[in-house]
Write a structure and sequence with these properties.
Elements lengths: L4 E8 L5 E4 L30 E3 L3 E9 L5 E7 L15 E8 L15 E2 H4 L7 E2 L6 E2 L8 E9 L13 E6 L1
Antiparallel strand pairs: 1-2, 1-4, 3-10, 4-10, 5-8, 5-9, 5-11, 6-7, 6-10
Length: 176
């Protein structure tokens, strides 16, 4: 049986309409572009206590590019149960925010109205994963997920440059 595979697209620009394959390189940046150069596109820590800076919303759209015999269903995404800088900063000055929408918007670098839920508190394992397909969706080859995943990095006062480690997220689905 073939193993299902997805291609992930970072969606940038007006209404997140420009799709770029980013399957292995999702990065939170301070510009609405597809790049892996986090050194030159860092999200700066704010200079005042109790304030936050935000990355541009990272808009992801998934497409099934290798299918099981018939279809894939119940696609969900989850991630680690910790904030991205927990090992380097016990005060947790960086938080990954998640949300989803069926109608993409132009990515912004202020507090998102879509990515409003802290990922590590809510979508941290399969049982708490965020659904990216509707219950009745049977995704076939070259089909897109029902929902766009919005992710945003929220950076608090005192965060140190270069402290964001690699963060791994898991994709869950059923094969039929």
């Amino acid at each position: 049986m073939p193993t299902p595979a997805f291609t992930w697209y970072k969606c940038t620009g007006t209404n997140a309409a420009t799709e770029t394959d980013c399957s292995n390189h999702p990065c939170w940046l301070n510009e609405d572009i597809h790049a892996v150069d986090t050194e030159n596109y860092q999200v700066a820590a704010p200079q005042e206590v109790d304030t936050y800076n935000y990355s541009y919303e990272y808009v992801l759209r998934g497409k099934l590019t290798a299918a099981a015999p018939n279809y894939v269903e119940n696609v969900k995404v989850s991630g680690p149960a910790y904030q991205p800088d927990v090992d380097l900063d016990p005060l947790n000055k960086m938080t990954v925010m998640w949300g989803r929408t069926k109608t993409p918007t132009t990515p912004i670098d202020t507090a998102s109205i879509i990515a409003t839920v802290s990922q590590h508190d809510n979508y941290y394992q399969e049982g708490n994963a965020l659904a990216l397909t509707d219950v009745a969706t049977q995704l076939v080859l070259n089909g897109y997920l029902d929902w766009w995943l919005y992710s945003q990095l929220k950076v608090g006062y005192g965060a140190q440059p270069g402290t964001l480690p690699v963060v791994t997220f898991d994709l869950w689905f059923e094969v039929s």
